[in-house]
Amino acid sequence: MSEQPVPSIYPIRLYGDPVLRRKARAIAKVSASVTVPGFSPQTLRQVSDQMMETMFEARGVGLAAPQIGLGLRMFVAAEYEDDEEEGSETPLRSRVLNTYTIINPVLKPVGRRKDDQVQEGCLSIPGIFEEGVKRSSAVRVDYTDLNGDTRSIEAEDYLARIFQHENDHLDGVFFLDRLPPEVTEEYRKELLSMQRQSREFLKTLELAR
Fold first, then answer.
1. Residues 173, 171: Cα–Cα separation, whole Å
2. pLDDT at residue number 204
3. In sequence order, which residues have a C-beta less than 8 Å from that of residue 73 and are 6 or more positions away?
4. CB-neighbour burial class of residue 117 (10 A; exposed 0-12, middle 13-18, buried 19+)
5. Residues 151 and 163 sit within 8 Å (Cβ to Cβ)
6. Rounded to an integer, what distance in angstroms lies between the CA atom of residue 30 and that of residue 69?
7. Global pTM value
């Protein structure tokens, strides 16, 4: 069997892929190597770096490990200088203010204020955007960093929403699940297409083993 490639960009798993509906496992040791399906074993830091690159390439603000087929409790996120104009080709990396790698997160609301007026999208359901997902306006996140140290961060407004969205992925939850069923039904055709793409991708992955 030939050695699996080292990725520069991971394929992002789409709606319909079973890994996106499973509850991810806690990471016991940040020093352990992990294997993204279809690739050679890597350190967690290497996976984090490539998740960032994948997120930038897809012009996203966050990416959870299950979205690359890795059922572990980790996500990456970024804050940018300003709102991106749709269709912009400016490299996102040039506009980064902060990046985050969050391992084994525990989220707690800070205060009671919630907001449902912000539009959400998802790299695993591309092209679908909806308002109405009620999120806490501020959260505290207790987590482990890539050095194995325990840390806490408080986030507000859009960053708080990103953290909650990505943490949902670790529990197998899409943002559409937090909206009335008729919203998902509106996108039935698009979601069925994504499910077909997911099946084809998994077949390709299986044949490559």
1. 6
2. 92
3. 24, 25, 26, 27, 65, 103, 104, 105, 170
4. exposed
5. no
6. 18
7. 0.91
3: buried, middle or exposed (CB in 10 Å: 19+, 13-18, 0-12)? exposed
Distance CA 72, CA 33 (A): 12
| 166 residue type, one letter | E
* DSSP output for the chain: -PPPPPPSSPPPPPTT-GGGGSPPBPPS-TTSEE--TTS--EEHHHHHHHHHHHHHHTT-SEEEGGGGT--BSEEEEEEESSPPPTT--S-GGGGEEEEEEEEEEEEEE-SS-EE--S-B--TTSTT--B----EESEEEEEEE-TTS-EEEEEEEHHHHHHHHHHHHHHTT--GGGGS-HHHHHHTHHHHHHHHHHHHHHHHHHHHH-
- Banded model confidence at residue 4, pLDDT cuts 50, 70, 90: low
| Distance of alpha carbon 156 from the chain centroid | 18
Residue 135: pLDDT over 60: yes
166: annotated active-site residue: yes
**Catalytic one of 57, 86, 89, 166:** 166
Using alpha carbons, list the distances in angstroms from residue 123 to 28, 66, 168. 27, 12, 14
pLDDT at 122 over 90: yes
